From TrEMBL:
UniProt enzyme class: transferase
Record-linked CDD domains: GMPK
Membership in a protein family: Belongs to the guanylate kinase family.
Entry-linked SMART domains: GuKc
Domain of life: Eukaryota
Domain spans labelled Guanylate kinase-like: 5-189
Keyword match RNA-binding: no
E.C. numbers: 2.7.4.8
InterPro entries, alphabetized: GK/Ca_channel_bsu, Guanylate_kin-like_dom, Guanylate_kinase, Guanylate_kinase_CS, P-loop_NTPase
Protein name: guanylate kinase
Annotated source species: Acrasis kona
Membrane-crossing segments per the record: none
Family matches, as Pfam families: Guanylate_kin
Length: 198
């Protein structure tokens, strides 16, 4: 499928629902999408599996990979490294569309410093109160971390609203999950017309 040559990037503040949206999309269209497995130096959350959810690595391994220029993008977020290796993306693109869950810094690197020509989608929560509720309800972060993430979210939404250099192809609001999923599919169809939904 030639569509597999353009990766899809889903960007947005922590808690807006990127992971949920990507899981649903992949569940519903398993044969079309692959999710590149990122590297991270953060510890696994309960139930996360090394090599499936992330490649969990030490700081030393991660910085070695940076030196070897193994990453399409990497970022230092909330004191931890996260990165997408070129190999991981190409592994997926060989047979499927590739979805990348990365922040705006990563998206900037992929869009402007690689030849991958991604479709970049920014996802927002309907408002900051809802975002805060989602982060609290998820219950995976401490209060301090939630506060840092909410501050970062304000900055990230400003960046999306400015959309300098047209980094984002589209900005979507994840209010209703099913509606947002359909909007993502519409964006993908627009930019990758060869895709056939099953
Ligand atoms: N449309 C929605 N309506 C209500 N709740 C939602 C919606 N989308 C996601 N959620 C919930 O919001 C919480 C955050 O979602 P998720 O973990 O997917 O966010 P994320 O953007 O991937 O966050 P992170 O970047 O921190 O991994 C989850 O508990 C999820 O079930």
């Amino acid at each position: 499928m030639s569509a597999s040559l353009r990766p899809i990037i889903i960007c947005g503040a922590s808690g807006v629902g990127k992971g949920t949206l990507i899981s649903k999309l992949m569940e519903n269209h398993r044969s079309k999408f692959g999710f590149s497995v990122s590297h991270t130096t953060r510890l696994p959350r309960l139930g996360e599996v090394d090599g499936v959810d992330y490649h969990f690595v030490t700081n030393e391994v991660f910085t070695n990979l940076i030196e070897k220029k193994a990453f399409v993008e990497y970022a230092h977020v909330h004191t931890k490294y996260y990165g997408t290796s070129i190999e991981a993306v190409k592994n997926v693109l060989a047979s499927k569309c590739c979805i990348l869950d990365i922040d705006y810094q990563g998206a900037t690197q992929v869009k402007f410093s690689s030849d991958l020509n991604p479709v970049v989608i920014f996802v927002k929560a309907p408002n900051f109160e809802v975002l805060e509720q989602r982060l609290r309800k998820r219950g995976t972060e401490t209060e301090d971390v939630i506060q840092v993430r909410l501050k970062n979210a304000i900055k990230e939404v400003e960046i999306a609203d400015k959309n300098e250099n047209n980094l984002f192809d589209v900005v979507l609001v994840n209010d209703n999950l099913e509606r947002c999923l359909q909007e993502i599919k519409d964006v993908i169809t627009k930019h990758i017309p060869t895709i056939k939904w099953d």
